[in-house]
Amino acid sequence: MMIRSWRELPKRPFLSTGECHLWLACLDEEDRHALQGFLSADECERARRLRNPQRADRFIVGRGLLRVLLGCYLASDPERLVFLYGPHGKPELAGGLKANPSFNVSHSGGLVIFAVANGFEIGVDIEEIHPVSDLSAAASIFLSPDERAELEILPADRKLERFYTLWTCKEAILKAHGAGFAGPTSDILAAFRQFNPKSGPQNTFIENKRLTLLNPAAGFKGALACL
């Protein structure tokens, strides 16, 4: 679902057990000054520490939208929400709101995506596709041998897009687990989809209901992982 304006968000979206909602917004098209009023003191300070004005504005809008959106689900004032953060920065709601709902956020370029779920943990990632100075070197670090072999046989004009597809899948899985890229990442996808032995190399992402590919906009790739 596309957020055209935070003022037009539904007052109390219904989220049934086992359901996940995805919301996409353009960070440069919202009212930064209005949304900044919902931020906590530490969030405002974090924005002030960002030296790039555009990055600071996008952080304010993204965090303000998150607060407004969760406030709608919980019938709570956005500014009253308190966040806790895991060892790798995954946010969750404090107090009795911690587990209901679960949520995750990702932003890249001028887009932000919010995932909100009821009854399971989620991780979401989007990335704007941009050139990688040494794609082979990056693949050797982050991809498994099978994934590198798959990448190698693709036409040159499809390699970069496929790399970002695999990257966002791995990032979403790690975020769902509350983990980061500090450890090995090459076999993350293989381990995550082992439960579905019928999935072949060409249809794994379609058949695996725990991992969904996203195409949020032209020039972007993304993925949603559900635990």
List keywords for this structure.
alpha+beta, 9 strands, 8 helices, Ribosomal Protein L22, Chain A, three-stranded antiparallel β-sheet, 227 residues
Structure write-up:
This protein has 227 residues and is of the alpha+beta class. It has two domains: 2-120, Ribosomal Protein L22, Chain A; 130-207, no CATH class. Helix content is 36%, strand content 21%. A hairpin with a 5-residue loop joins strand 8 (211-214) and strand 9 (220-226). Helix 2 (41-49) packs antiparallel against helix 3 (53-74). It is globular.
Quaternary status:
single chain
Radius of gyration: 18 Å
Whole-number count of domains:
2
What distance separates the N and C termini?
22 Å
Residue stretches low in confidence (pLDDT < 50, at least 5 long) are 194-207
Instruction: Assign the structural class, choosing from mainly alpha, mainly beta, alpha/beta, alpha+beta, or little secondary structure.
Output: alpha+beta
CATH topology of the largest domain: Ribosomal Protein L22, Chain A
In CATH, what is the class of the largest domain? Alpha Beta
Tell me what portion of residues adopts beta-strand conformation: 15-25%
**Beta-strand segment tally:** 9
Mean pLDDT: 88
Helix % is 25-40%
For the biggest sheet, the summary is: 4 strands, mixed
Write the element-wise H/E pattern from the N-terminal end onward. EEHHHEEEEEHHHHHEE
Q: Note the total helix count.
A: 8
Q: What is the name of the CATH superfamily of the largest domain?
A: 4'-phosphopantetheinyl transferase domain
What order do the strands of the largest sheet run in, or round the barrel if closed? 1-2-6-5
Would you identify the CATH architecture of the largest domain?
Alpha-Beta Complex
Apparent shape:
globular
